[in-house]
Amino acid sequence: KWFFCENYNENFPYADRETILKRLESYIKGVLTFVQTQYPGVIYAWDVVNEIVDEGDFRKSIWTKTVGNDFFIKAFEYARKYV
Questions:
Q1: Which GO terms describe its molecular function (predicted)?
Q2: pTM of the entire predicted model
């Protein structure tokens, strides 16, 4: 939960959408850059999002609560940007 809160502190309220999106991009960039640098050519596929649909609708999650139903689109955009 701390990832989604102001100052990365779970005792604080949730950060705003733009802050969470910046964190998401930074995280994806960091992971992809690390793996591509340390283990070039090893990873050939990435699971960018997982289990976002439940009974025909978006699964209720901290992502949908803080960013909205389009969070997965941004995740794919960031992954494509840094892969």
A1: hydrolase activity, hydrolyzing O-glycosyl compounds
A2: 0.90
